[in-house]
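Suppose you are handed a protein chain with no further information: no name, no annotation, nothing but its sequence. What can you learn? This example shows the usual starting point.
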Amino acid sequence: QVQLVESGGGLVQPGGSLTLSCAASGSIFSINAINWYRQAPGKQRELVAASTSGGNTNYAESVKGRFTISRDNAKKTVYLQMDNLKPEDTAVYYCKYFAFWGQGTQVTVSS
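A reasonable first move is to predict its three-dimensional structure. Written in structure tokens, the prediction is:
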């Protein structure tokens, strides 16, 4: 069994920053396989950041240069640093490990 718990969401002004955390527990083989998704109101869930088999990270075009994923293996935690946030980044952010999803954390970017 796998448990994923996101945290760190909130309300932030445009141009601001937030750091999301995804704490994993249970049968996790590698936190490198944990990726970030988001779902905005009325839209489909989309991939935000995902690791490749070569050890790199792919980012959605809309967040490139602004979002950065990092990992702490000792804590089994994956982070998503989000800078220069825009209103269109407003969404529920989820982490995912294969078929397992966290409950999501709300990010609202508004003045």
